[in-house]
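Lab manual, section 2.4: Encoding a predicted structure.

Procedure: take the sequence of the chain (447 residues), apply the prediction step described in section 2.3, and record the output as structure tokens. A sample record is shown.
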Amino acid sequence: MLRKDFLWGGAVTAHQSEGAYQEGGKVPAVCDLTVTGDFSDFKDGIDSYHRYKEDFDLFQEMGFNAYRFSIDWSRLMSDENTYNEAGFQFYDEFIDALKERGMEPIPTLYHFEMPVYLQEKYNGFANRKVVDIFVELCKKIVDRYNDKVNYWIIFNEQNGILQKGPKMFFGGVCPEGMNPQTFDNQIMHNTLIAHSLVNDYIHQKGGKVMGMATVVQSYPETCHPLDTLESMKAQSEAYVFLDVFARGHYNSYYYANMKNEGTMPEILDGDFDILKLGKTDYLSISYYMSTISHYGEQSLTNVNDVVIKKNPYLEMSDFGWSIDPVGLRITLRQLYDRYEMPIYVVENGFGCDDEINENGEIIDDYRIDYMRKHIEEMKKAVEEGVDCRGYLVWGPVDILSSRANMNKRYGMIYVNRKNNDLKDMKRMKKKSFDWYKHVIETNGEEL
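Recorded output:
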């Protein structure tokens, strides 16, 4: 049985939902630079900048008691030393609207929305100057909203830095001639320093922090011991961050591996003391899929999108992601065995190109099936002793995907727009809306 104060709700980002690209003092963000042009862009989103109260009313009807969103850096700083009061006022009203509807606001302080000018001038988080700028911004955000916010997430999916692919989400481009792994490790280190400093400030102000990573469960492809070692190596890319969140230091394996490979980042005097400040109150994860590991091969890449190796024992979504509910249970058990800290699932969901039928309905039984099975496995993990305290579905209202593809929908609320046609952006309930509402009403007892 789940806790009586279990958090049920959903999660989005600002750049995939807000739109209002040139309103309120917003400037371009680095996430805009990741758009391939194959689908759309983030300029209009689903216009939640103007329509968020309409969405919040629907979330309240579903019974949400929590909502995760990002505070868009590019909406709060129009230049390196210039803060944008209009942006802060927008989030004043946004957070108030959530609280008025009985929802716990869970802001993410960095979800790939760094202003482009910081990428162009400093190469993003590859430069410690950007760490300083980010920490000062976060202090202003915490000071502004601390009396309204109980839970904070500092970086979204921070371990995505180590996935093989471009680092533009973190504002960085590897310099010519530099070892790409050393570059990745530098961004990792710098963002962990930023995390630890912001975490400490939130704690000084009495707030609580959920340290976050994305976990792609990785199974050995065969029973060959080298495949197991490869699987352990793949998992270490999440553990190196989670270990700082739970223990305040690098784990010995990853640190030794950087030494052995010659990929050690620049670490300044006092940095290890700063990392000790990084211990969070809770852990939080995004979980969508699993992959398999074979010695000497990449089990996951993230160039134009996440690509994994196919598991012959699992179904795949239309977008090439494995459907593995048991993997969520395995992940929760592994993390709780390792850290013995409360865990929140802050992203999970099923992306599909939903269609409206001839009766004007969206019958998304496939989404219900996906969510039901994942919640069932989460509950089994709780029965097995895991202290799991929340489940937030990704994109409860349709938003653009991380690659700006409106046809990859996750929501229980349909938004009437296409990649190249904004239409009227009317909101429509899908079949999954009433299903999730009942799940929340019964605190997960009836699925």
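Check your result against the sample. The chain has one domain: 7-441.
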